[in-house]
């Protein structure tokens, strides 16, 4: 059974399954992958990589999208 | 005016009014105002997704991507590194290579840091972005941005959200004459006449956010702005009369008693 690891998502600590991928995390958070950008430890991921990149303890994930804004 | 399309970086637009999506009461109002404005291009900011409150709605659920061209911006970036990071994230979100580049120099004026802007624009153009830079009304900087490879420039009319209208029409006119790419007047528009004036000076488009979202009736103001941009553009193309110090009568003297 995979143990839990601690990662940081959008600045907040979070528990996560040890063998989870970025794609798993997005699904767990109910975040659709269209029009979302993901940065893993300051590296911007191509969305094709979401299901290929596994998360490790201490990883910092940033999940961003478009919001209302002019300037 | 079916033939008067605006072409920037391979994109073709019918409307010369670009609108932002910030400062509205809610998404429903945002959507109605954008519809009333007739805009084709809509700017958005790039921010963290709210992961704690997943019930929160998404702006993009209210904007049909088939109907609008989404133009992400690097709002809130005060240095080159941040602007590059946000631009690259915007592109990774997978909509297009378009980016409205903002590198701000000061929190009170929100004027662009033109040195940082030029540096960031150069890098992003090399990376294949279609860079639309928010700049000031300095024709020299505008030309440098074009030389770097920006397919359009966006000089400010006045500080963002100030509603002061066009503070320096003479500089903007010089930019229109000297710089050979589309000019999109951005920031500081307050009411319809400001937008019409920008188009009469020769601007190719006007971008505004606060002027609409902050109006007492944003939907009505959006419609006003639609007509203002159309009127200004028609007047510009029609060729105005010159300004004269003295009168020239409109009716003939011949035939008078």
Q: Which range does the strand content of chain B fall in?
A: 15-25%
| Helix and strand pattern of chain A | EEHEEE
Number of separate strands of chain A: 5
Mean pLDDT across all residues of chain B, rounded? 95
Order of helices and strands of chain B: EEEHEEHEHEHEHEHEHH
Looking at the structure, what is the overall shape of chain A?
A: globular
Sheet/helix structural class of chain A: mainly beta
Low-confidence stretches of chain B: none
- Beginning-to-end CA distance, first to last residue of chain A: 48 Å
Write out the strand line-up for the largest beta sheet of chain B, numbering strands in chain order.
5-4-3-10-9
Task: Give a verbal description of the structure.
The complex is a heterodimer of chains A (71) and B (257). Helices cover 10% and strands 39% of the residues of chain A. Chain A contains 1 helix and 5 strands, in the order E-E-H-E-E-E. In chain A, strand 1 and strand 2 form a beta hairpin. Chain A starts with a strand and ends with a strand. The mean pLDDT of chain A is 92. Chain B is α/β, with parallel strands linked by helices and 257 residues long. Helix content of chain B is 36%, strand content 16%. Chain B is built from 8 helices and 10 strands. In chain B, helix 1 runs parallel beside helix 8 (218-238), helix 3 packs parallel to helix 4 and helix 6 (192-201) runs parallel beside helix 8. Chain B starts with 5 loop residues before the first strand and ends in a 19-residue tail after the last helix. In chain B, 46% of the residues are buried. Chain A binds chain B through residues 9-12, 29-31, 34-39, 44-47, 62-71, and chain B through 19-24, 27, 30, 43-49, 51-52, 54, 58-60, 70, 72-73, 75, 88-95, 102, 110, 134, 160-161, 186-187, 207-210, 213. Strand 5 (60-68) of chain A pairs antiparallel with strand 4 (41-48) of chain B.
């Amino acid at each position: 059974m995979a143990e839990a690891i601690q990662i940081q998502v959008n600045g907040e600590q979070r528990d996560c399954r040890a063998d989870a991928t970025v794609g798993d995390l997005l699904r767990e958070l109910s975040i659709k992958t269209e029009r979302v950008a993901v940065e893993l430890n300051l590296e911007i991921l191509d969305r094709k990589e979401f299901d290929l990149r596994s998360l490790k303890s201490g990883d910092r994930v940033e999940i961003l999208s478009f919001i209302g804004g002019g300037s | 005016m079916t033939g008067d399309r605006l072409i920037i970086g391979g994109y073709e637009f019918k409307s010369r009014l670009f609108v932002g999506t910030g400062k509205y009461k809610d998404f429903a109002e945002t959507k109605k105002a954008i519809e009333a404005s007739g805009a084709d291009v809509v700017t958005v900011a790039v921010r963290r997704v709210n992961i704690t409150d997943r019930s929160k709605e998404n702006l993009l659920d209210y904007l049909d991507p088939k109907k609008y061209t989404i133009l992400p911006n690097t709002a809130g970036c005060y240095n080159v590194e941040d602007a590059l990071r946000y631009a690259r994230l915007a592109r990774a979100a997978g909509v297009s290579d378009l980016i409205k580049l903002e590198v701000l120099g000061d929190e009170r004026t929100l004027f662009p840091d033109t040195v940082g802007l030029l540096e960031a624009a150069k890098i992003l153009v090399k990376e294949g972005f279609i860079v639309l830079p928010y700049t000031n009304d300095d024709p020299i900087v505008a030309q440098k941005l074009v030389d770097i490879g920006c397919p359009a420039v966006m000089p400010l009319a006045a500080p963002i959200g100030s509603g002061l209208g066009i503070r320096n029409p003479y500089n903007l006119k010089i930019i229109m004459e000297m710089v050979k790419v589309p000019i999109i007047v951005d920031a500081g528009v307050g009411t319809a006449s400001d937008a019409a004036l920008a188009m009469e000076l020769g601007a190719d488009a006007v971008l505004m956010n606060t002027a609409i979202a902050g109006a007492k009736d944003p939907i009505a103001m959006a419609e006003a702005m639609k007509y203002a941009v159309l009127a200004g553009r028609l007047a510009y193309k029609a060729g105005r009369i010159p300004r004269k110090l003295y009168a020239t009568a409109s009716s003939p003297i011949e035939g008078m008693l």
